[in-house]
Amino acid sequence: MSNGTGWRMNEKERQSWEITRKRGAPTYVLIWGALIFGGLLLIGDVLGAVYFSHKTLDISEIGLRALMECCVGIFWALVMWFMDEHRYRNALNRVESNRETEPE
Fold first, then answer.
1. What pTM was estimated for this model as a whole?
2. Domain-by-domain residue ranges, the chain?
């Protein structure tokens, strides 16, 4: 959103989202949500627990944390998917309305 258009999707973002859409929501949610976002949360959570709390974590505690962080990541990715879909559809509507108002 640093491009100055706010919630509007510019042409480059629209083309990028079209590629992402072709891969599908399940792929987006699993890769960006569970693996990347959830993985980063897990790393931060475990490092924070070890560094700041000075406690050792056993494998079952790490597994439980991994499950929770992946669920949070999946939720985040679903929210992002629907927000970007909304932005994409609005961008398509703007393109279509611009085509209709242009003189031939």
1. 0.80
2. 33-80
